[in-house]
Amino acid sequence: xxxxxxxxxxxxxxxxxxxxxxxxxxxxxxxxxxxxxxxxxxxxxxxxxxxxxxxxxxxxxxxxxxxxxxxxxxxxxxxxxxxxxxxxxxxxxxxxxxxxxxxxxxxxxxxxxxxxxxxxxxxxxxxxxxxxxxxxxxxxxxxxxxxxxxxxxxxxxxxxxxxxxxxxxxxxxxxxxxxxxxxxxxxxxxxxxxxxxxxxxxxxxxxxxxxxxxxxxxxxxxxxxxxxxxxxxxxxxxxxxxxxxxxxxxxxxxxxxxxxxxxxxxxxxxxxxxxxxxxxxxxxxxxxxxxxxxxxxxxxxxxxxxxxxxxxxxxxxxxxxxxxxxxxxxxxxxxxxxxxxxxxxxxxxxxxxxxxxxxxxxxxxxxxxxxxxxxxxxxxxxxxxxxxxxxxxxxxxxxx
Length: 400
Fold this sequence. Notes:
Structural class: alpha/beta
Number of helices: 17
Distance between the termini: 34 Å
Shape: globular
Strand order of the largest sheet: 3-2-4-7-1-8-11-10-9
Low-confidence stretches: 1-6
CATH architecture of the domain at 10-128 and 222-240: 3-Layer(aba) Sandwich
Number of strands: 11
């Protein structure tokens, strides 16, 4: 009998990202290719090249609608010169990048491949002048028959969640304003952020209403971007890195697509399921005490609060006051979205979930610059697909 010494652990050995923002001069394929080049160059010991990639997983939400391009995995493989590598496109609305990461993680953990490259990419900015951009987002995120056709929009869905949250827990828009205030400040310290401008709570409160009670500064922007991570099996990692970041837990949850089918508008059942799975795998029994830093999916301000509560970091209704009082700031007891979050770093749909992992790796490796969280050893990334039908939670750690 042949005995394997493999522990089935999966680590991250390479990171690549280009600044999120308005890239008028770059196509989808160029965005991906540039981030892939950065990832190859980042491998600590070098020697990792295209022939070492076991499979390519591409997270992309809506290239057909944004740039008229399907078969995105083949496009990225072609552009990056990875023609001898099996490639897959993963789509889960704006959780596509996180879903691609989980698919790659499972493939490596299964032992079928030793390494995998995960690329999250979206090209959105060219559509900002298109009056159809609102319908593109709705068709990407919502139930077409039950929500899009009757006139619901992506923003108004979260506005209903915010109103329900206010009514149920007795908080208000002033509490909510602390989320974008915090995340915009964090983004001023992130060279890859789309918006490097801070806003006061008063400015957030006075921003133009998009869907009451959500104002413009409560809503994540349309963004171009690409992020990449390279995964490797434990026995291969010594060839490439002395300081990998380990994926210790990975969970995915599902809920109804349409809001009207859900029991509550103030919790994300899919996030609960994903967090329970990931935390159990990682051995986290008290997330509030065991987790040092979180990257949360704040597609809208209210989404960050509900997600933190759904993962068990706060009791229902308590995340609002905690954020308002500074607990989730860079210097708080539970830093959330030091990258600037989707709100300020930017939200290139398919890239976002991978970008969260890039940020956590930088934090755990002590390479996050002025936004560095002191002594960060355990990080959690939470990603949401649409209004919460799909959710992913991943737990990252480093060797101590």
